[in-house]
Amino acid sequence: xxxxxxxxxxxxxxxxxxxxxxxxxxxxxxxxxxxxxxxxxxxxxxxxxxxxxxxxxxxxxxxxxxxxxxxxxxxxxxxxxxxxxxxxxxxxxxxxxxxxxxxxxxxxxxxxxxxxxxxxxxxxxxxxxxxxxxxxxxxxxxxxxxxxxxxxxxxxxxxxxxxxxxxxxxxxxxxxxxxxxxxxxxxxxxxxxxxxxxxxxxxxxxxxxxxxxxxxxxxxxxxxxxxxxxxxxxxxxxxxxxxxxxxxxxxxxxxxxxxxxxxxxxxxxxxxxxxxxxxxxxxxxxxxxxxxxxxxxxxxxxxxxxxxxxxxxxxxxxxxxxxxxxxxxxxxxxxxxxxxxxxxxxxxxxxxxxxxxxxxxxxxxxxxxxxxxxxxxxxxxxxxxxxxxxxxxxxxxxxxxxxxxxxxxxxxxxxxxxxxxxxxxxxxxxxxxxxxxxxxxxxxxxxxxxxxx
Length: 453
Prior knowledge:
Oligomer: single chain
Number of strands: 17
Largest sheet: 7 strands, mixed
Strand content: 15-25%
Strand order of the largest sheet: 4-12-11-10-7-5-6
Number of helices: 13
């Protein structure tokens, strides 16, 4: 049995404070030293276990150390597989491409080519807007309010948060932000895009592309209706504008289908994927219509666009999508989350302002923004990792692994409810908290008042 030494724990924290840049962020939100992880659980170096409703900001849709990925990677390394290959042909790449075609594209009637961009989501976005401008020979891009598309310069220009548009930080050139669905209440904001494109004096140049998230994760779990998405797609087609869907956080099954736009019945010209596609390993992809593939060799490049370990991981994770069963389970868990969040909202009255989401990405909005942060801090003390989102960090965002068990889902929702009780200064509903039993192979489950899930 590993013996915990408090002094060593303090030394590790001191190392972070002394040596790592002030840029560090999540280590402040989750102030402990993690040592191991499996499934929906992390364990720190003191033996305390945490249920993960953060999932690496949506990177770990299939859980920590997914057994399919773990087995495949160990075999690949044992047989001296190619780890880094730039964009040379490797068996790992070919097997992934064939699986994408067989499992994702053909069953959905999609005819995309696949571009391996740099390893991060923002690089996929950079590639997409660069290609759109090259393809249409126009420079302007339309993005939306509360959008989040990454932190490199081109992506920052698309991101809505005002902080990133300070001229000392980034650039806002050739981008117009228009209101997202629901931003103006019941007003159909697609009409504004249509009107401005049809009016030669609106001040909006004819854009090369419109880029959007079907669900805005970092923006506060703002969910676009399928009708709105279809109208935007029709407007783009009518005006010869490319439609780019940023599926980096809400693709890979997060909304219940592999691509978040499937149920809307639209086919974007370009799709950006990253985060969960590599199972925790860095990789991003751009799916593009064949007629958009006008790149010259090496025109958009990057040293780490050939991460073969991520190719192996991604290949294994596609097996979850061979039939409809996994998506149906995501949908069922999404209903469970929605029902319990609405129950929590009703219980706390004016404290909780709204519940919104789709599939297994959900947000609980608080009337007072600081309350969301208080709830997340309390939840972490109680053994639940969860974060805030939204323009004022007013939304508690739920991103549990898609593979989470029903028991663990119940446990996380119970901890969240108890944490809200504590954050508002009340005794918790269940009068007790989940206490991890690290001597067991599986954690004990505290279901509390959520046994009906």
